[in-house]
Specification:
Largest sheet of chain B: 7 strands, mixed
Distance between the termini of chain A: 49 Å
Radius of gyration of chain A: 19 Å
Oligomer: heterodimer
CATH topology of the largest domain in chain B: Aldehyde Oxidoreductase, domain 4
CATH class of the largest domain in chain B: Alpha Beta
Number of domains of chain A: 3
CATH architecture of the largest domain in chain A: 2-Layer Sandwich
Number of strands of chain A: 14
CATH superfamily of the largest domain in chain B: Aldehyde oxidase/xanthine dehydrogenase, molybdopterin binding domain
Strand order of the largest sheet of chain A: 4-5-10-6-7
Number of helices of chain B: 19
Radius of gyration of chain B: 28 Å
Largest interface: A-B, 20 and 30 residues
Strand content of chain B: 15-25%
Structural class of chain B: alpha+beta
Structural class of chain A: alpha+beta
Number of domains of chain B: 3
CATH architecture of the largest domain in chain B: 2-Layer Sandwich
Order of helices and strands of chain A: EHEHEEEHHHHHHEEHEEEEEEEHHH
Number of strands of chain B: 28
Helix content of chain A: 25-40%
Distance between the termini of chain B: 64 Å
CATH topology of the largest domain in chain A: Uridine Diphospho-n-acetylenolpyruvylglucosamine Reductase, domain 3
Shape of chain A: globular
Chain lengths: ~290, ~775
């Protein structure tokens, strides 16, 4: 398990990192390393240059920006999981962070690294698409934001340009009468999500579902919003039967992943079951 | 029998402080001046002819000292022998070259080795070795491999059949003719990967001036490795020293003689510099022996009251591409002979067909043959109970060998030493509150919930030897234990043992045994093992043998010490030896306790030798070799309660009760640890572990991302207890406990899940009972369209 040779760079600022990224051919960013380094050790990834963002302290924060929560790309999973701010303002994100890997992984892995890597079975993507977070990318030309729902473009593919660095995740405030839940079926070996469902449910004053936002990971090539489920739930009473019927549509239009552990049929069933359970759990948590 | 405060005490493991503080020295920690590093080039194909190996580019990589191919080994590294030549089985032993020359037979088969100044350079150069392969069709399934027309692995093993072995006894035809019911089942015991925490490793250092070769390696049996590697390498035994430093688990996988260590030794000899090789985890999955992999067709003849009449069947045992060191003995002697289980079985007729396939060689993995046998028997007992509408515990009770029938001669030819199977079952039943759970199950079923209760009543054979039996069944070695007890002039004691604990805790338990016998504090005791230059010959740690054979050797050696010390004490006290008593570490004249010499005083005199009795030699040390008169047969009952989520197929273990009887217990803490670890591996086989190949022989579960090693979150709390039925033939009454949990747990869990699914009409599912497998079965049972 020895990686191929590479040159190691450790910039102190985002600007310095961007310049390296621009200048160096075949470079990869290191932001925790819990996906990249194993791939390098197996020589599935053989970058010529590794740009370690770990020393850029400016990217490691969680803070309020107006009514929103802003999370620096280098915030570790543990920071996200344990942050009182995240737990209060975006509990489903903290819940998803807490289900990643094990404590060692959560102490080193970062939210920016995970989102930019865009593993189809990662936990965060379900939460950020459900929360309608915005992802800020910085390049030498400046900074732009991408909606989380438009960020994941395919298998390990994102809207980031090769010369951009993901710098911040911004979670907008949740409306009143909203509850959230992240339910996950972890792969027994890898711990990744065979299916992960983040449900954010907002009720109206009559106790019906005003809006449901369902983010799903592990099922398709990239995390997605279960639009058909959301549609079926809008304006509905969230009783078991209604939710179950809506959840049947959790994988509508999705080419469902298949692997040794879970066939497409089985995974489709799981996402239906977990969507139902997640919506009901989220509804229970509405405050 | 030495019964004092240490025997039976939960003394904390003396090995743990260095292990948990990271101060232990493993093979990879051995660093020598001028050390080179080896990396192997391995076949990516399961079956291929090697047309050409081009190492020129690899040799040009800076830092590379040498690149060797199979041709370079000719006359210097002999093929690897198989050391369990099971008789009356027409066993074929095709050659197993350390590095392939003309043909590769599984993914991972070595084709070259690169030696360089550092591992990185060696790894880079290995990637540049060009091998021209002619890919051949592969076969990975034992049944398919035995079919006519299947790809052939070895010219001298037609139809890929390595052996056909039979066990028979009683009148099976009559049993089936008289049966009220016949239970038939096809049972697959899937292939497993052992996953020792420390992968394999070796460091070889050769001194040309003396011809001495020192080999540090991850070994469960350094003396066996020395004997066999001496032959493989042509290094005489007295100049070959094998040192197994700290070994981080093995579960069987570090018993065997693999190509890699031999090649590392060869490299060191050729290059005149020390060479290290450390297996990476991916290699570990591909080249270190796998376990299990049986396909069995079996039938059981029973009377309508549940009485067993006979068992017959056939197992295809997948041996992988070559015969690993002990491979033929595992599915035969350790499996076929155990098919009577804990029951009075009057007739058996069972064939085991050992088959070569294009897969990693298969050999002993924790339990080794006994889990497979227990799984078959215990599944059949449940199926019979279901068929006859008997309680699964009741059918077991009706067939148990009763306590007064021991020693019990099984129809397979073994002699069980002692047992009280009903007592263990009753204890477990009480601990679980079995009847309450049956009530709970009824209620749950009314609510559409799937609750199941599973039992496993096992008996296993361990404490291997005796040696004459080992010889009779083709094991190419003895199976006794050895110990040297050396008392130093200050009265401190070293105990040198021939076995090689690697997690089992004998550094503690043997200190307890010797300290008791010598009546000295345990702090005055250090147990030393793992170095062939220091320790007496011994056959190693596997088959739950170290405690039974080794503790007896320790005890006998310690007794010799006391006998000699008594002679010296009598002389010093000017009394007759017959009048000397030994108590609390003092020799004294019976009736005059003030006329005494302490153990320490006597020891000092033994070394000073100023005034010894005429026929007594100076010094105080003794050795003992203990060859047991019989195997030991631990047993017990494990009970498990599960709930299956019918929507997802997930299994939750609600209760797990383990009642084990391993004879007398030296250290309950360590026994509990062994049981816990064993159950964890056993239930992982039931629910989640499986090594899976595709049809081309690629290992699909090639890493811990895919192969589900059990984690803390996967296991429930274990409720453990013991009954204690001493082995009547063992001087301490102990039996061994290293494998019981693994043997017992698998069928207990599977039986529980099948019990849960019974209302759906699901009769049997093969392991691992993954959520998707269960869910699919439920869909089929419900007649769903999925």
């Amino acid at each position: 398990m020895i990686p191929a040779q590479f040159e190691y760079h450790r910039p102190e600022t985002v600007a310095e990192a961007l310049q390296l990224l621009q200048r160096l051919p075949d470079a990869r960013l290191l932001a925790g390393g819990h996906s990249l380094l194993p791939m390098m050790k197996l020589r599935l990834a053989t970058p010529a240059h590794l740009i370690d963002l770990g020393r850029i302290g400016d990217l490691r924060y969680i803070r309020e920006e107006g009514a929103a929560v802003a999370i620096g790309a280098l915030a570790t999973h543990w920071m996200v999981e344990s942050s009182p701010l995240v737990r209060q303002k975006a509990p489903v994100l903290a819940e998803a962070a807490g289900r990643i890997g094990d404590i060692q992984v959560r102490n080193l892995g970062t939210i920016g690294g995970s989102l930019a890597h865009a593993d189809p079975a990662a936990d965060y993507p379900a939460a950020v698409v459900a929360l309608e977070a915005e992802i800020a990318a910085e390049g030498l030309g400046g900074r732009r934001t991408v909606k989380a729902t438009e960020f994941f473009t395919g298998l390990f593919a994102t809207a980031l340009q090769p010369t951009e660095i993901l710098v911040q995740i911004t979670v907008p405030p949740l409306p009143a009468r909203t509850g959230g839940a992240y339910l996950k079926f972890p792969h027994p070996a890898s711990g990744f999500a065979v299916v992960g469902v983040a449900a954010v449910v907002t009720m109206d004053r009559q106790g019906r579902c005003e809006r449901a936002r369902i983010g799903i990971t592990g099922v398709g090539p990239a995390a997605y919003r279960a639009a058909a489920v959301e549609e079926a739930l809008a304006g509905a009473e969230l009783d078991e039967r209604t939710v179950a019927a809506a959840a049947q549509r959790a994988a509508d239009g999705v080419e469902v992943n298949e692997d040794l552990f879970a066939s497409a049929d089985y995974r489709r069933n799981l996402v239906q079951v977990f969507t139902r359970r997640a919506v009901l759990a989220a509804a229970q948590r509405v405050t | 029998m030495a019964v004092t405060k240490l025997f039976g005490a939960s003394v904390r493991r003396r090995e743990d402080p260095r292990l948990v503080t990271g101060r232990a020295t493993y093979t990879d920690d051995v660093r020598l001046p001028g050390l080179l590093h080896a990396v192997f080039v391995r076949s990516p194909h399961a079956h291929a002819r090697i047309r050409r190996v081009d190492v020129s580019a690899a040799r040009r990589v800076p830092g590379v000292a040498a690149v060797f191919t199979g041709a370079d080994l000719a006359g210097k590294v002999n093929p690897l022998p198989c050391a369990w030549l099971v008789p009356n089985a027409d066993l074929k032993t095709p050659p197993h070259p350390a590095i392939a020359t003309d043909r590769v037979r599984y993914v991972g088969d070595a084709v070259a080795v690169v030696v360089a100044e550092d591992r990185g350079a060696a790894r880079d150069a290995a990637a540049l070795v060009q091998v021209d392969y002619e890919v051949l069709p592969a076969v990975v399934d034992a049944e398919k491999a035995a079919h006519p027309g299947a790809p052939q692995l070895h010219d001298d093993a037609p139809h890929n059949i390595a052996f056909r072995w039979k066990v028979s006894g009683g009148d099976v035809a009559d049993a089936f003719a008289r049966a009220d019911r016949v239970i038939r089942q096809r049972v697959v015991n899937q292939r497993l990967i052992p996953n020792a925490m420390e992968p394999r490793a070796a460091v070889a250092d050769y001194r040309a001036s003396t011809g001495e070769l020192t080999l540090w390696m991850t070994s469960q049996n350094p003396h066996i490795h020395r004997v066999i590697l001496s032959g493989v390498l042509g290094v005489p035994e007295h100049r070959l020293r094998v040192i197994a430093p700290e070994v981080g688990g093995g579960f069987g996988s570090k018993i065997f003689v693999y190509p890699d260590e031999a090649v590392v030794a060869f490299c060191a000899r050729e290059l005149g510099r020390p060479v290290k090789w450390v297996e990476d985890r991916r290699e570990n999955y591909l080249i270190s022996a796998h376990g299990r992999d049986h396909i069995t067709e079996v039938e059981l003849a029973v009377r309508s009251d549940g009485t067993l009449l006979g068992l017959r069947g056939r197992t295809h045992a997948n041996l992988g591409a070559y015969l690993s060191t002990a491979a033929p003995g595992v599915p035969t002697i350790l499996h076929g002979l155990m098919l009577s289980g804990a029951y009075q079985l009057p007739a058996v007729d069972y064939e085991v067909v050992g088959v070569f396939t294009n897969t990693t060689p298969v050999d002993a993995y924790r339990g080794a043959g006994r889990p497979e046998a227990t799984y078959i028997v215990e599944r059949l007992m449940d199926l019979a109970a279901q068929e006859l509408e008997l309680d699964p515990l009741e059918i077991r009770r009706r067939n148990f060998i009763p306590p007064d029938r021991f020693p019990y001669a099984t129809v397979t030819g073994l002699s069980y030493d002692s047992g009280d199977y009903a007592q263990a079952l009753d204890t477990a039943t009480r601990m679980l509150e079995y009847d309450r759970w049956r009530d709970e199950q009824r209620r749950a079923r009314q609510q559409g919930r799937y609750l199941g209760i599973g039992a496993s009543c096992y008996v296993e054979i361990c404490g291997l030897g005796p040696s004459p039996v080992a010889g009779a069944v083709g094991f190419q070695g003895g199976l006794w234990g050895s110990a040297v007890v050396r008392v130093h002039p200050t009265g401190k004691v070293n105990v040198f043992i021939g076995e090689k604990p690697h997690g089992q805790g004998e550094e503690t338990t043997f200190a307890q045994v010797v300290a008791d016998e010598l009546q000295v504090p345990i702090d005055d005791m250090q147990v030393i093992y793992g170095d062939t230059a220091l320790t007496p010959m011994g056959w190693g740690t596997y088959g739950s043998r170290t405690t039974p054979v080794g503790s007896a050797a320790c005890l006998l050696a310690a007794r010799k010490i006391v006998d000699k010390a008594r002679k010296i004490a009598a002389h010093l006290l000017e009394a007759s030896e017959a009048d000397i008593d030994y108590q609390d570490g003092r020799f004294f004249v019976r009736g005059s306790p003030e006329r005494a010499k302490t153990f320490r005083e006597v020891t000092l005199q033994a070394y000073l030798a100023w005034d010894l009795p005429k026929d007594v030699e100076p010094g105080l040390e003794a050795s003992a070799f203990y060859d047991p008169p019989n195997f030991t047969y631990p047993f017990g009952t494990h009970l498990c309660v599960v709930e299956v989520d019918p929507e997802t197929g997930q299994v939750q273990i609600l209760r797990y009760v383990a009642v084990d009887d391993c004879g007398r217990v030296i250290n309950p803490l360590i026994v509990d640890g062994q049981v816990h670890g064993g159950i964890t591996q056993g239930l992982a086989q039931a629910l989640q572990e499986a090594a899976v190949y595709d049809d081309r022989g690629q290992l699909l579960t090639g890493s811990m991302l895919d192969y589900a090693v059990p984690k803390a979150v996967h296991v429930p709390a274990y409720l453990t207890a013991r009954t204690e039925t001493p082995s009547p033939h063992h001087p301490l009454g102990v039996k061994g406990v290293g494998e019981t949990g693994t043997i017992a747990a698998t069928p207990a869990v599977v039986n529980a899940v099948m019990d849960a699914l019974q209302p759906l009409g699901i009769r049997h599912l093969d392991m691992p009972l993954t959520p998707s497998r269960i869910w699919q079965a439920i869909q089929r049972a419900k007649g769903g369209t999925r």
